[in-house]
Amino acid sequence: MAQIVNTPSYVKDVAATEGLMSQRRRRMIIAFLFILPALINFTLFRYLPIIASFRTSLYQYSLLGGYGSFIGFEHYTRLIHDPVFWKSLGVTTRFVIYKVPIQIVLSLGLAMLVQRETFGAGVVRSAILTPMVTSIIILSILWAMMYHSQLGLIQSILGIFGIPHLSILSNPNRALIGITIMMIWKDLGFSMIILLAGLKGIPGEYYDAALVDGANKWQAFTQITVPLLKPVLMFVIVTQTVFSFQVFVPVYQMTKGGPLDSTKAIVYYIYQQGFSYQDMGYASALAMVTLAILLVISYFQMRFLRAEA
Amino acid sequence: MATTTNSSQQTGVVRSQGPSQTAKLTQRVIRNLLWAVLYIVISLIFLIPFIWMIFGSVRDESEIFKYLYPFGWHTFFPVHWTLTHYLDVLGLTPAGKLADLHFGLNIFNSFFVSTAVVVSSLVFNTMGAYFFARLPFPHKNLLFVYVIATLLVPLEVTMVPLYIVVRSLHLQDTYWSMIVPWFASPFVIFSLIQFMRDIPYDLDEAALIDGAGYFTILWKVIVPNATAGLVTNALLEFQFIWNLFFWPLIAVNNPRIQVLQVAISGTLSQTQQYWGRTFAGASLASVPVILIFLIFQRYYVAGVATTGIKG
Description:
The complex is a heterodimer.
Chain A: H1 9-18, H2 21-57, E1 59-62, E2 66-70, H3 74-80, H4 83-114, H5 119-133, H6 136-147, H7 153-160, H8 175-200, H9 204-212, H10 217-245, H11 249-255, H12 266-276, H13 280-308
Antiparallel strand pairs in A: 1-2
Helix pairs in contact in A: 2-13, 4-8, 4-10, 5-8, 6-11, 8-10, 10-13, 12-13
Chain B: H1 2-10, H2 12-15, H3 19-56, H4 61-66, H5 73-76, H6 84-89, H7 94-98, H8 103-134, H9 140-148, H10 159-168, H11 175-179, H12 186-197, H13 201-209, H14 214-225, H15 227-242, H16 246-251, H17 260-269, H18 275-295, H19 297-307
Helix pairs in contact in B: 1-3, 3-18, 8-12, 8-15, 8-17, 12-15, 13-14, 15-19, 17-18
């Protein structure tokens, strides 16, 4: 970090030769004007929401009536005894545990498959990246139609293999899996790009040397590729875990948290409390707790990263 | 493949190369064929929903379901082509007007909001990156930590809290609410710093000695030398804002200023009756971004790979 923001020495020299304090101070004020807009933005729209949300969580607060009476940590005790909160935490955790490992393994496999600089590999790369640049709401609408138990395209494809109509999003045992498959499909491209950049960073001589030593491809993969890719892999795992934990749009669009709360992820529950039930106070308490959980996850994963680097 | 080997052994020309050579050639052909098949299958897995969507948007409603079973060519490919669904969702037909569809307006809103964010974000993030990369200031590291720590603030979780702030600023239900929170981004600042560090410092030194101010240096020296970074970040930012759903969903109620993504979710898909219209709306919302991506793919990939971020 220090390297990035180092002040070039000549600037100091120029400032010194000018001699006048007022001149230096003027320059400093002008310099500060460059960063001021960004600082205002981050203060107002990134940090203040957290503070405001914490304050709101201590009050009765409805969208229509505004702030009501101060109730201290009552929302937090309610949260501990709220079975839906625990259920949504479980749903979210299961989603992350299903999604992230499969996504990482598949994207590493695909990255190795398409890293060659051939026309065909280029076409496949573009295809894999297409869902990544498409908005998640459009994909959720499309996939809900594809999953449709009578009229869905997936039913038609399953029909080739003689599999009869399969209810997916309306079945409490399958809905979360349906959403997970779609999200792996969408986010694969993202992790693949980063892993491709990582693979490019491994010198080809390493592989040549291993081949000379008589290693086979699998040995080269486990002894060279994986260890050298470890920092990048860790980075992808961290970011994808935090990102996946916040799944909202597919739940909102495809299942509304149902059936039987089987897909009610935590961010959807926050939204529901705040906007469907108009209980901003409780929604804020839920947001604060989720924020804390994510910070703890990031903290531990950052420690991992630092240990790797 | 056995026949190929046999027939080539009978022709004297090939035989002179020896059987092992022929076997190798055959092996290469098979291998390339397997690669091609693998590539086609993978590409289809990622593209089929889009193919279904685009063809579905230009065919009669009944056809979408009629050819679903058995799975075949016409499951995708229209028999009877039509643009009705597009005219409907743009509100250009009586049926579309009756359903209160005005996607032309929503597309304008999406375009207006995305452009406003890209422009303001380029101005303020470029200034911020210039500050960190090249200007002298005491305790700059602390300010940098303040900026970079916002990366730890999870976006979706803080959407409802953000709404509380925007509401107390009385910006809710306006264009401003969709633009103002995004005019600065820690991702873009971080990414632009990387690009600016590669520009030789002699350049601003010379300009400074000539008496140029910081703004002049930024505009005349830094910006022309950082165009690759600016283009990359403009693209990523445009895609990020164009695709945003959760924020406009809660920030804006007025359907006249609502963006396309939310309009589609609200007006079409929830009735689940007009699949053709849904396909048409989804195509309008996604195909332009996909095309931009395909044209500028190189920038996209470089941008995501260097900063490791989404938008």
